[in-house]
Amino acid sequence: MGNAHRPYLFPLLLLIAGLVLLAGCGSDHRFVKKTTFEDANAITIEFAGPVDASWATDKSNFTVYEKPDPDILLTIQDISLGPDQHRVTLTFQDDLNQDQPHVVTTTDIRSQGRSIGPAVLTVKKLYMGYLLSIFIGAMVISNFVFTKYLGLCVFFGTSQRKSTAVGMGITFTMVIVVSAMMAWFLYQFVLKPYRLDFLQIVVFIGLVSLSVQAVDTILRKVNPALFKAFGVYLVLVIANCIIIAVPLILADNEYNAFESLMLAAGAGLGFLIALFLMSSVRERLDLANVPPTFRGLPIAFVVAGLFALAFLGFSGMSIF
Amino acid sequence: MEADKPIQQEEKSSAVEETRHNMLTVSVSPHIKSRESVEKIMWSVVACLVPPLILSVFVFGLQTLIITLISVASCVAAEAVSQKLLKRPVTIRDGSAVITGLLMAYVIPPGVPYWIPILGAVMAIYVAKHLLGGIGFNIFNPALIGRAFLMATFPVAMTSAWLPPLRDAAIFTYMGQGVDAVSTATPLYVLKHYGVQALMEQFGSMSTIYRDFFMGLRPGCIGETSAFLLLLGGIFLIYKRYITWHIPVSVIVSVAFFTWIFGGDTLFTGNPLLAVLSGGVMLGAFFMATDYVTSPTQMTAKLIFGAGIGALTVLIRIKGGYPEGVCYAILLMNPLVPALEGWFKPKRFAPPKGALK
Amino acid sequence: MTTDILTFPKGGAHPAESKELAQDQAIEPMPTPDSLEILLSQHFGAPADPLVKKKDVVVEGDLIGEVTQGLGANIHASVSGTVKALGMSAHPVLLKVPSITIETDPEAEARVFSPSDWTGLSKEDLLARIRQAGIVGIGGAGFPTHVKLSPPPEAEVDILIINGAECEPYLTTDHRVMLEQPDAIIEGARIILTILGINNCHIGIEINKPDAIEALSQAAARASSNGFHIQVNPLQVKYPQGSEKQLIEGITGRQVPGFGLPFDVGVIVQNVGTTKAIYDAVVLEKPLYEKVVTISGRGIARTANLLVKIGTKVSDIAQYLGGTTPDLGKVIMGGPMMGFAVPDLNIPVTKTTSGILFLTEDEIDTHPHGQCIRCGWCLEACPMGLSPNEIGVYVEAGRADETSQFGVFECFECGCCAYTCPAKRPLVQFIRLAKMKAKK
Amino acid sequence: MPATTKSNFQLVSNGILNENPIFRLALSMCPAVGISTSVMNGILLGIAVLFVQVFSSCTIAAIKDYIHPRIRIPTYTLTIATWVTVIDLVLAAYMPAAYKEMGIFVKLIVAFAIITMRLETFACKNSVQASFWDGIGMGFGFMFGMMALGLVRELLGMGTILGYDVLGFRPLLFFVLPAAGFFCVGLMMGLFNYIELTYNRKKKGT
After folding, report:
1. How many CB pairs under 8 A join A and B?
2. Where does C114-284 sit in CATH, by number?
3. The complex's ipTM?
4. How far apart are CA C316 and CA D54, in angstroms?
């Protein structure tokens, strides 16, 4: 390729990533300003203008379900409309599981006699907090290595030295963010619309190889020094099951672009943290008088078990 | 199954040549050494841990003594057996296994079956300590690993065998009784699930609560209840310079601080004093987080380590699946110690240029 | 004179002083033994070449050994008598070194030296006298003093420090010298100041020797009329207060960089004993062939501060003082923190011997050592900010060659770490091993 | 490198013993830790891996002459992914309960290092028949490793074997927790090392 392209390559990629991200954060419906959970068993929808009372208070105009279970519709007990006719509060029979996003589907919204079209609204608790909880969750609380037991081959293979561990962790984080975003894009805009879900595995693993190749090429051209430091780990990335687990999880949970980004970044950084801790521990254990039959991998497994025991402290934790 | 001779043995014997020659000892300087020794430190810690045990006998009954003795005995036995198996010198006299046994017993509920600590001892001493190279190389606090193991193995007993304090010192009350008949809820459990109002209904007015909790008249683990006695022991250890103030103070301050911010219904309304008195904070701060092997050596690192423990404790208490989080918080900070040691090194005396990386 | 009580900021230990055993014993000349072995390697550098043959007759103070190439110092006969043998003798550190054995002539009279005026002498003449007298740093490794007093021209030396800290437990040699001959020390300091061409001198003394501080302050006041600024600085009692780098930092606040020398920060340090020897060499024109040695410890019948002829054997000293006790466990040449244990008493005193300690089994530590428990006390104690615990662990794991990352070569083996270690780990020994292995 | 000279039996036993994927090669550790909680899980995932390994090995061995060396890794990956998709869909359709228990791990077979490694080191150099037997050996080796772990953990954790109550009580609930998977694998590796060490010593001694 011509040399002239080189400086534009990286910004271009950033731009594409930005566009992908923007696609994910479009408003649910232009007439809806905000949706929030109210109390333990209510959802409030705030509209941009006044809505008709006859439409708003009719229970049959709203269907609500938890995002992972579209088949179970929640029973709406009561609907109340605020005095300025902007706010509609749906009260439910049972308490809502607010850790899960809920989907509210409405019929044609009617405002001052006009029809504004139906809306599919996603209600989430404290959106930034939700993103943060995905991020922290993937990074620490349900760390992929110590609580989900994924990526172990690479984890044990590259945690012998601190320098190797950090190199691997950084490389892995880069690749997983790139590949997860591409996977999200393909899943949302190709696989799902064309009902090709069953090709998930083939497509995702293909994407991973592709992004490994892409990062390889870009690094080699843009920053040869960095490539020299991290290039060796690129091959290993593909053998790490976290890299395929993350796209599968974000497809399963129907995450949007931001959520996917958080999950991917959290998983990558969580792997980096796990690697760093493990490598610093193993460097110390190198000096220890470990029984000969346990030297090397066996003792690393025992230590990882101790880590997992400690991480049990996070079980049952939900931040937001 | 580890019948092999540790390979370092040879290195060691050549490294330390202490010979007696014409009845005169020849060895490398210094020829005088301080009077302190590992044994002295360890047995001092044991001594500081005895008063809470005596109190718990009067508060929870005689079976706490039996549980503690079984725990200590099984830890010492596990240490001796592990060291024999691994062909290492048996060092049960140094008291470290006794401390492990005591601490493990102190963080389990007073109404558990007597044999429970035996399993914990195997995990704590053999797996968490001797497989990793013996004292000095155990990355995690063995007593807490033992407790976490028991927690995972006997979740019901370990989270429900709480006993209401005896007010009449009738120490045989709970002996041989089924636990279910008398079990109660710990203050932190009540606080987490029902709030301060329920706590006051169960334990009386706020001033009564502070007084009782400070003295140790409350449901809780065997050795964690009496903030007063633990504080006394901890101050003695600080006075003897066996531990420094950094870790205990930073743990307690950060628990209080984060509870104050996040512990209430809204921000900045938590009750820091209650948080410090009602769980295992005192025991953890003075006796567990300060374990030499599993805590950093540099002062800044100690402060960070302690603050991390406090923050994680509050996080687990408020957001986690358990009402109390001190033990897990310490376990989660333990593996950070080698990294902290790498980040915070002693300040070198004018090192030659280029010698520091 | 009142000043702040100074010390170095980082590390250090407080070993039991045990100075009360000998500090009140006035300096006492020891009668000449029947024969003595004068080692030809008593200084930093190559051994001296003998200038006498077997059966030669020598007189007290005669030059009998000379170093012609490289660093070294002259060796003089300590007694009048006949050369009996040129052989090998035991040395506390180097094990076996060449020596000259002299059989004392019991009839010979002691030489008498009378003071002369030195103020008219040039810098070169003064240095020549010091060189001629064979003076070395008698508090430490025996670095030739005339070399030390000739810093390279680019070094801008502005402070002279006289080291009277004597921080090693048991030792009281410097203490007694300061107490009994304060004027000689001040005179010696003035000689050094003249050589260096400066006028600022600090004398550092630990405050556990208040009488010495008093004596030197008065002597300094008496002599301060002629342009020299000599000041006594009381120092905190903390080991290793007398270590060169620590002393310089405590008094001047300057830090000597690693592998550097004091003149890099404009300071020259001389020990009190060396200063006294310089006085002897310049004013009395007396070579360095006898020195004050503290004989202490609970393993000897009588403790003393003896003026001993160099070459006198430890066994003769022990015999003179009434013999050793049955529970004697260890004999140390030097202080208990940095001195060398010797296998038997058949070993002669050298120019750098500041004390001979006869320690009983109770006084020494014979605990077996355990594994490092990472208490961090050695990190607290190390005055150089090193990590003795890590070095020890690396050495035990057979990875001594990786220890230079902990600055193992900056260690001057003061022994604070091993002293404080509750697991009784021989950390200094580990560090020496590490130095040997890491050098390769 | 020439094609293997080992007999079919040797190929199979090699995978089960000498080069056991879990305990000797230390590959594919995630399921060994994550879902080796029961013998049944071990058998099911073992079958899935066996299936993917055998079919991928055979596929690669069959088309090895047509693969350009530079694109061989992507080819392996896609081959494996195809067969994983097949077994994934089959299991989801016919064994939904077991499929749910194994969660994401069936899909993750695609990233198991052992399969790619056998393709790279064996299948691409050997005949279809040899690759078939090698795949059988590796698959069974994996399955036996999983079953051994599952046996220990199910017995100690639930007191059952293959769901049948053996002990009548649950000794140590800890062992069904995934955290125990690390310990079991670590201790078993230690055991394997110990057996090898004593065996070698005996051989040296005589």
Report:
1. 109
2. 3.40.50.11540
3. 0.89
4. 89
